[in-house]
Specification:
Helix content: 25-40%
Distance between the termini: 47 Å
Number of helices: 2
Low-confidence stretches: 68-72
Shape: extended
């Protein structure tokens, strides 16, 4: 098993802690459950993946000013 440290904003941590309590799980178990549920909704038939192939790489994602996979990016002037 891999140990992975994540920093949560206080409000998100409170929401996860409350949901874990409601589901009678530890916070760690709740986070794993939420990740599994989230990944199940991004199944191979996701339109982001060409032909629904899970081995195909999905388009890059990021902030609006990050580079896009097509090589085009949003250029903002320096102020």
């Amino acid at each position: 098993m891999i140990n992975f440290n994540v920093r949560f904003p206080d409000d998100l941590h409170a929401r996860v802690r409350a949901q874990a309590g409601a589901d009678r799980r530890s916070i760690n178990s709740e986070i794993l459950h939420l990740i599994e549920v989230g990944l199940a909704t991004v199944a191979p038939e996701t339109p982001d993946r060409p032909d629904g192939d899970p081995a195909s790489s999905a388009p890059l994602r990021g902030k609006p000013d990050s580079s896009r996979p097509e090589g085009r990016g949003v250029i903002r002037p320096i102020r």
